Amino acid sequence: MRQASFDARGSRVRWTEVAGAEPARVYVHGLGAASTVYHAHVAARPELAGRRSLFVDLPGHGISDRPADFGYTLEDHADALAAALDAAGVSGAEIVGHSMGGAVAIVLAHRRGDLVSRLVVTEANLDPHPPRTAGSSGIASYEEDAFVTGGGHARVLEHVGPLWAATMRLTDPLALHRSAVGLVRGTEPTMRDMLETLEVDRVYLQGALSGELPGAERLTASGVRVVDVPGAGQNVMFDNPDAFVAAVCG
Asked: How confident is the model at residue 134, as a pLDDT?
């Protein structure tokens, strides 16, 4: 396990790392998740093994610190991820981001192009104000106090299902809520606009069970390779690991 400071108080973002060939491959989890849980099983596959691999837990999640005075916006998370990569001596990395982690990876590539050579994003948030679900929009529908101390956190854990709850219960409730609010608010320019204008190699994975990806034609026209993954929903790396590994391999 390694760590790096990401704020003025010295709070630490942490990651586990596997040695291997450069360029590094950096795995970034989604809202209420943890990177090793969602990605270690695919990183160990023969097709992906042998590369230097970092499994980063964003602030408030997993093994990273959870300061109460941190904003947990997408930009904040991207800056913390950049601090980790700078401390690790990583540049020109391949970033594999899931859901919120994909949005953070897009923001990172927009703000710190030196750190990113390729993006593989899975079911990433691209637009602000998504439809109401049990995920970020459902969490963000609560006022902060009502979610953190008024029972909202417990109610969400009951409704997200046992797989997601297993890691969400390890996420700081305040960080979870503020991260969800940041996702719903989005960025300026939007994550979609950033993704379309980036010049690095870009792959977007959409689980077929999640429905058609809005704006897929526009993404394709901008050079993004959009992959519709059969038999998969939000968690493509669990539902169809063969297709996920193939997309990461390029």
From this structure: 59
Question: What pLDDT, on the 0 to 100 scale, is given for residue 135?
Answer: 84
CA 208, 210, 215, 220 torsion-angle sign = negative
Question: For the stretch 208-235, what's the b/e string if a residue is b when 16 or more beta carbons lie within 10 angstroms of its beta carbon?
Answer: beeeebeeeeebeeeebeebebeebbbb
Listed in sequence order, the residues at least 6 apart from 144 whose beta carbon sits closer than 8 Å to its beta carbon are: 174, 177, 178, 181
Residue 229 near residue 222 (C-beta atoms within 8 A) = no
CA 172 to CA 3: how far, in whole Å? 18
pTM metric for this prediction: 0.97
- 10-residue mean pLDDT series, the chain (250 residues): 97 98 98 98 97 98 98 98 98 98 98 98 93 82 97 95 95 98 96 98 97 96 98 97 96
Determine the length of the chain. Answer: 250
Q: Bridge partners of 227?
A: 205
- Concatenate the DSSP letters of all residues of 160-208 into one string: S-HHHHHHHTTS-HHHHHHHHHHHHH--SS-HHHHHHH--SEEEEEEEG
Q: Which SS3 state, helix, strand or coil, does residue 227 take?
A: strand
